[in-house]
């Protein structure tokens, strides 16, 4: 017969191992998202844009992309959309990244077509970058 203390130890160890595994998988997925070329391109554009720092305040910290939100965070065949949480000293919001693949050049990857900063408290949306190539309706 197995003692209760042994079962508790096994259950506790399984819980700890499972939790650590889920955390590690989450961190790996976030690292992959942050390595996307259009993600890094969008952040470079934001850092060079005065309206972003004026609205949020410095320093600006980035949050994790909600990968369960398939409506606002996806990588399609020709289009991609990411919603990145941002927090500054004055305000918080979301950086909405809209990216397209070059037609006929699938190996090139995504290029940023539209960047919008959505402020949380005021509900304002500031367009940071727009190539006028994103044709889909944008809903919150």
TrEMBL record:
This is Mitochondrial import inner membrane translocase subunit Tim21. GO terms for biological process: mitochondrial respiratory chain complex I assembly; mitochondrial respiratory chain complex IV assembly. It comes from Plectus sambesii. One of its GO terms (cellular component) is mitochondrial inner membrane.
């Amino acid at each position: 017969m197995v003692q209760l203390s042994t079962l508790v130890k096994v259950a506790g160890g399984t819980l700890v191992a499972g939790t650590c595994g889920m955390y590690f998988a989450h961190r790996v997925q976030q690292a992959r998202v942050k390595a996307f070329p259009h993600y890094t391109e969008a952040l470079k554009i934001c850092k060079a844009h005065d309206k972003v720092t004026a609205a949020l305040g410095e320093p600006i910290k980035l949050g994790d992309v909600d990968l369960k939100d398939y409506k606002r965070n996806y990588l399609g065949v020709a289009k991609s959309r990411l919603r990145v949480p941002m927090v500054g000293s004055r305000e918080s919001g979301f950086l909405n990244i809209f990216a397209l693949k070059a037609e006929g050049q699938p190996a090139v990857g995504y290029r940023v077509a539209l960047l919008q900063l959505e402020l949380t408290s005021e509900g304002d949306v500031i367009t940071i970058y727009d190539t006028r190539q994103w044709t889909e309706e944008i809903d919150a």
